[in-house]
Amino acid sequence: MAWLVLRTCALLGLPELLASLCLAVCYLVLGIAGHGAESGPFYVAVTLSGFCGAALIYLFRLRQPETSLRLRGTAGRAGRAKARRILRFAALLCLPGLPLMLVLPPGTLLLALLTGLETPLFALVAYATYLVENTDGRSPRLTAAAAGTGLVVVAVAAVVLVPAAASSGAMAALLLSAGASAISLDVGLGGRGPARRHGGP
């Protein structure tokens, strides 16, 4: 029993840890690519985005006991269905990122626009993750896997985009990472259909 509690706690904390690693990867690639001076603008952008995300997560934590009680049992299906709708909408926020990268030169304007996309995308994924985690004991595995997918994507995207676009490329990598997490979690939730038909939540 103690092992199950520890394992669940570890899985619940993993998405936030991997989100921090995503930022660390971006800073690392900025330095390796010779864009260390761009860490300043990137820091300002992620601080603004991170403040919004941290405030949202704090509000989630305040309401977590009530939400967990409300979404347990058969109500968990409705919670997961709502999360999937949110995730699908969130993934759409990635779509303007590529045209912006192609049309605008790297710089403050591009960084600001990408941050304007990444901030609500991150918030929506965080909200969907919050809903999913409070539905049953199996869900943290899905949210942890989605966060892991985001880490892989940010590493690949940063290596490709940062050398050419500096801090704008790093923000674009975070945008793609959040989008990949949204898609991964949506797919994971879709794979739970058979379990629900056999009476699982």
* SS summary, helix count: 7
Percent helix, as a range, is over 70%
Rg (CA only): 18 Å
Number of strands: 0
- The arrangement of helices and strands along the chain is HHHHHHH
Percent in strands: under 5%
**What is the 3D form?**
elongated
Oligomer: single chain
Whole-Å distance between the termini? 21 Å
Residue stretches low in confidence (pLDDT < 50, at least 5 long) are: 2-6, 194-201
Structural class: mainly alpha
Average pLDDT level: 85
Largest sheet, described in full?
A: none
How would you describe this structure to a colleague?
By secondary structure, the chain is an all-alpha fold. The chain contains seven helices and no strands. 86% of the residues lie in helices and 0% in strands.
Can you describe this structure in just a few lines?
This protein has helices at residues 2-32, 39-71, 75-92, 97-103, 108-133, 139-190, 193-197. It is mainly α. The chain starts with a helix and ends with a helix.
